């Protein structure tokens, strides 16, 4: 992948070296297959191919025959497992019977595994999620404006034909495959839903407002949102409520599309037509997505929230660690402004847990105002273990 090393690659390789099998989940086109192929599996079963799909659907024991001749320590890669979720049970049985084989199973829909009541028993198969390219993975190839405009799907970001691929991804995958899983009556209904939800990315979910804007019944909307969540297309972040009782905190969830390029493509926002306000909103979402990825990849067990209350105090991101809370404001500006600290100071007074407060911005100077660190976003991300510990 043009010299891009994924953050999960070493972690997965370490598990393979210990003889452990893994389940790798993630939306289509985030690079799951490429990552595993880089680890040189002895055999690959690609269920996206219709012939292989039909063969394994017709004969569930076929996989046992395929792996029988393999040497000890061989890696078996099964791609697109959501097409035949029950194969995971066969794999777990094979791991029990033939402990010298290693399996990597990848898929793009946790929903289908859940529907089939697939159980991953502890210690047998370790589960990971892969996301679009991160700030840390891109290294010198990182470009903020590009990341905000076309997102981080590897083929989209790293190739000149990326915008064409992004359009195809939206038209074929989101509007057809996910729509089919959602059992929407027609494509235009589901397309309206996607448009409205993409507009809501980075905002609180108001189902009544969404229903009015999309002319789709509220219960259908809830079902569609759950489907996008379970197919790994959106993230949900709840409101933070552990504040002193003098304030009434908002509890609604915010949603975030997994990739900003996909979100922008659904809305048909041209790269060269984005306003400063739009870029600022995308910047906030992008920072939050990076922290979601960091938390997942490194198993930090951080809890992510946002905060808003009836006094109109708002904080973009609240991170709850074991004994510490971090309050973070995200600003598109390049020059720090005194008023930036006001919501963080207000939140510190009402939070029931000790708080460290940061402002991330596009400037290049590390500042401190009223005990609040104002940090260039790239410095913060480059030294994230220092700031979030």
Structural summary, described in words:
The protein is an alpha/beta fold and 389 residues long. The chain folds into 3 domains: 7-129, Rossmann fold; 135-280, Arc Repressor Mutant, subunit A (Orthogonal Bundle); 300-387, Trna Endonuclease, Chain: A, domain 1. Helix content is 43%, strand content 17%. The chain has 18 helices and 13 strands. The chain has helices at 7-17, 32-37, 50-58, 62-67, 87-97, 110-115, 135-138, 144-150, 154-158, 162-182, 187-199, 207-214, 218-230, 260-266, 276-297, 342-350, 377-382, 384-387; strands spanning 21-25, 43-46, 75-79, 102-107, 125-129, 234-237, 254-257, 303-308, 314-320, 325-330, 355-361, 367-369, 372-376. The strands form 3 sheets. It has a 6-stranded mixed β-sheet, with helices on both faces. Strand 8 and strand 9 (314-320) form a beta hairpin. Helix 8 (144-150) packs across helix 15 (276-297). The longest helix is centred in the last third of the chain and has 22 residues, at 276-297. The radius of gyration is 22 Å and the shape is globular. It starts with 6 loop residues before the first helix and ends with a helix. The mean pLDDT is 90.
Which key terms come to mind for this protein?
Arc Repressor Mutant, subunit A; Trna Endonuclease, Chain: A, domain 1; globular; 389 residues; 5-stranded parallel sheet; 3 domains; alpha/beta; Rossmann fold; 18 helices
């Amino acid at each position: 992948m043009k010299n891009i090393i994924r953050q999960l690659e070493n972690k997965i390789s370490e598990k393979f070296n210990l003889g452990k099998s893994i389940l790798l989940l993630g939306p289509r086109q985030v690079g799951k297959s490429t990552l595993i192929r880089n680890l040189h599996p002895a055999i690959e079963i690609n269920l996206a191919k219709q012939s292989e799909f039909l063969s394994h659907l017709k004969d569930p024991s076929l996989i046992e025959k395929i792996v029988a001749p393999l040497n000890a320590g061989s890696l078996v890669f099964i791609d697109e497992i959501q097409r035949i979720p029950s194969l995971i049970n066969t794999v777990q049985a094979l791991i029990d019977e033939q402990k010298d084989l290693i399996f990597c199973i990848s898929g793009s829909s946790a929903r289908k595994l859940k529907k089939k009541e697939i159980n991953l028993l502890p210690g047998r198969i370790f589960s990971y999620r892969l996301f679009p390219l991160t700030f840390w993975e891109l290294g010198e190839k990182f470009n903020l404006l590009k990341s905000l405009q076309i997102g981080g799907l590897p083929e989209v970001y790293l190739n000149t034909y990326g915008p064409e691929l992004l359009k195809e991804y939206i038209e074929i995958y989101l509007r057809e495959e996910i729509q089919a899983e959602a059992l929407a009556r027609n494509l235009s209904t589901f397309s309206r839903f996607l448009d409205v939800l993409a507009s809501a990315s980075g905002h609180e979910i108001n189902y009544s407002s969404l229903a009015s804007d999309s002319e789709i019944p509220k219960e259908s909307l809830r079902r569609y949102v759950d489907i996008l969540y379970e197919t790994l297309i959106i993230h949900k972040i709840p409101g933070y409520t552990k504040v002193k009782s003098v304030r009434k905190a908002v509890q609604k969830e915010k949603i975030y599309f997994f990739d900003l390029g996909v979100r922008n493509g659904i809305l048909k926002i041209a790269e060269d037509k984005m306003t400063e306000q739009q870029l600022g909103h995308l910047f906030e979402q992008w920072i939050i997505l990076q922290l979601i990825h960091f938390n997942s990849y490194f198993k930090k067990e951080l809890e992510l929230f946002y905060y808003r209350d009836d006094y109109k105090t708002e904080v973009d991101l609240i991170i709850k660690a074991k004994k510490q809370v971090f309050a973070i404001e995200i600003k598109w500006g390049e020059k720090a402004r005194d008023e930036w600290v006001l919501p963080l100071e207000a939140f510190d007074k009402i939070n029931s847990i000790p708080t460290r407060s940061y402002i991330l911005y596009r400037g290049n100077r590390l500042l401190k105002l009223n005990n609040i660190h104002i940090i260039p976003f790239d410095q913060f991300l480059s030294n994230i273990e220092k700031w979030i510990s």
